[in-house]
Q: What sequence folds into this?
């Protein structure tokens, strides 16, 4: 099946893979762990030279999560005209509700991946499965930023099981970027 432009449709991975990409990631820290043990004060703390707080990153993720869920419901969603339209303002005081709504939304997206028709076209050439894979990639980028900010704020690793090699990998990777890569 193709769209009216005769370009092929874009498909995503199978349901089980999408579920894992959305939440477990195997190669990524699960979202619940990345957000675990953060206070509203830390989540809302603005670091000098850093454009967003952890709370703002999660609000951004939630904004696009709601967009993806609306596509899954068959609603005609509108992409903001400018990038800043996808960055809701928050000072972090609503952190616990924001964190929980994001995690609840992940549960709903996993249900969509498991139960809905992933081959259904939801926008242009994009199938629902493709949109969910884009969403998982978007989450991975910004949750990586959350982890970096937590490191900078001295709030990493979160309580519980420690996987130190992920932290070392992230810091070493960052050291390979910039004007003098090693």
A:
């Amino acid at each position: 099946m193709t769209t009216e432009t005769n370009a092929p449709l874009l498909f995503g991975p199978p349901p089980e893979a999408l579920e894992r990409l959305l939440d477990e990631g195997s190669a990524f820290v699960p979202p619940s762990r990345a957000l675990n043990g953060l206070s509203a004060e830390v989540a809302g703390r603005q670091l000098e030279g850093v454009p967003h707080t952890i709370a703002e990153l999660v609000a951004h993720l939630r904004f696009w999560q709601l967009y993806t869920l609306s596509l899954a419901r068959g609603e005609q969603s509108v992409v903001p005209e400018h990038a800043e339209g996808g960055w809701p303002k928050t000072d972090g005081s609503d952190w616990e509700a924001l964190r929980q709504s994001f995690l609840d939304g992940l549960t709903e997206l996993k249900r969509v991946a498991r139960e809905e028709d992933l081959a259904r076209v939801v926008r242009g050439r994009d199938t629902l499965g493709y949109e969910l894979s884009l969403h998982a990639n978007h989450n991975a980028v910004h949750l990586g930023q959350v982890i970096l900010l937590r490191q900078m704020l001295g709030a990493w690793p979160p309580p519980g099981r420690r996987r130190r090699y992920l932290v070392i990998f992230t810091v070493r990777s960052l050291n390979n970027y910039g004007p003098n890569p090693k």
Observations:
- The helical segments are 15-24, 31-35, 40-43, 54-72, 95-115, 128-152, 164-175.
- Residues 165-182 have pLDDT under 50 and may be disordered.
- Residues 150 and 156 are 5 Å apart (CA to CA).
